[in-house]
Each structure stands twice: as structure tokens, then as C-alpha cells.
Amino acid sequence: MSRKPASKPRAATPEPVDYLVVAPHPDDAELGMGGTVAKLLAAGRRVGIVDLTSGEPTPFGSRAKRRRETAAATDVLNLSVRLNLGMTNRELMPTLDNRRRLAEVYRTLRPRVVFVPYWLDAHPDHVAATQLAEQARFHAKLTKTRMRGEPHYPARLIYYYCTHLRRSADVAFVLDVSDHIDLKRRAIECYRSQFYDGRGDQAGAVLDYVLDTNRYWGRQINRHFGEPFAVRETLGLETLDAVL
Q1: Cβ atoms of residues 92 and 132 within 8 Å
Q2: Confidence of residue 12 (pLDDT cuts 50, 70, 90)
Q3: What is the dihedral of CA 119, 196, 50, 130, to 10 degrees?
């Protein structure tokens, strides 16, 4: 008697999150706001990252390397929710299909706040990721659609800096990440193929730049290290207790 092949077990649907970081490539979330991710997790908040592309090809990387590096960085940060949508690196576009796929992530994970790349960048993938994340926010709330999940509209978009431009304009606030900068450093160091391999005396230069930038922003708020953020919509405060 012939037997039907056993079906593959379905991957468990991730639990909803409070905060979701949209990253064009693996490593962008860590570079731009790794300290904030660590701080939110330490405070008991639920945080997820969705990487839009594999980030490949790169000079010293491969898809297998990037998967291992991303898994290592995810472990360092102790993240339980991290997705990769497998969109095309170097050709990322805010197409209707990509918008739908990201909107379904919003509808599934139901974040209150979505962090997206700052809207000005030299890298076309980063600009496209910002446009895509903004459009998916609106798309995710639609009814009478074949998209998976129930309608959801994230309350806030907050923009983080992982830009290839040496500027941090339009900063709305800076978050103190002094107690979590070591975790950020360790997470970034996981991406050996991007910041160390084949780079000679420039190995680690990107990490040095990122930490120097975080040190500068920390000094702006009288702390050791800070991560800057921008907004397009007016922020409201219920209390001034947390203002430095």
C-alpha cells in the first residue's frame, strides 16, 4: 500500500510584537538602532525585525554566510522574532506585490510602532525600503482584501539612521543607549563578511564610525551613547518624566 509523503510541519506564526524594525538588508537594524532594540527587549517589550532582502551579493559575502551572521546577531540581541522577505537586493522597489507582502507582516505581527530607515539616503534600496514601509502601513489597514490577517494600522512610524550619507538631519529625539552599547557592538561584529573580511587596515572602520556617531549623539543629551531618530508626524507626550 502506497503512503502519501509526510507533509512538512508548518512554521509557527510569530507572536505579535510591540515594535517592528523594517531593515533593507541584514545588519541595517543593528547599525542604526541595535542599542534601542536591546534596550526595548531589556524592558520587556516585544520587538521584531523584518529584513527585506538577503543583502547579497556583496564582495565577501554569500547567502549562507549572511544567514549565519544574521542568526548570530539575532542571538546576541536575544530576539525571538526575525523574518526575511527575500526581496531582491540592489533591485528593491516599492511594488504593489512587495507592499502587500510587508503589509501582511504588519497584519500578522500587529506592531504599535514601526521603525523604518530615514527617508534620505544614497543607497536606492534604503530609499525604496522607506517608501515601501510607509505604503505598507496604509495598505495593512485595508478591508475587503485577500491579504492574510486582520486589518491593522501601526500608530507610529519612527525613522532610524542607517544611511550612506554622512548626515543625521531632522533629528526629533535621541534615545540613551549607554547601557546597551556593548550588545550593539557585539551584534554588529557578527557581520564579519560586511565589516571585516578582506578589508585590511580598514577592518572594523564602519563599527568605529557607528560608535563614534552614537558617542556624539550621547553627548548631545549628556549621556555616553545615544541613537537619533526622526519623525514625520507630531509626537505627543503624556508626561515629561522621561525627558532628559
Answers
A1: yes
A2: low
A3: 10
CA distances, 46 to each of 23, 50, 79, 148, 196 (Å) = 17, 14, 9, 21, 31
* Domain chopping of the chain, boundaries: 19-230
Q: Which 3 state secondary structure label does DSSP give 235? A: coil
Q: Which helix or strand (DSSP H or E) is residue 129 part of?
A: helix 124-139
- pTM check: above 0.70: yes
In this structure, the strands spanning 226-230 and 81-87 are unpaired
Q: ∠ CA 14-87-8 to the nearest 5 degrees?
A: 45
Interstrand relation of 113-117 and 156-160 (parallel, antiparallel or unpaired): parallel
Q: Which of 235, 199, 181, 244 is nearest to 39 (CA)?
A: 181
Which CATH fold topology does 19-230 show?
Rossmann fold (3.40.50)
128: left (phi over 0), alpha (psi -120 to 50) or beta: alpha
Write the CB contacts of 10 (distance below 8 Å, at least 6 apart in sequence).
none
DSSP E strands, 24-142:
47-53, 81-87, 113-117
User: How confident is the model over 100-128, as a mean pLDDT?
Assistant: 97
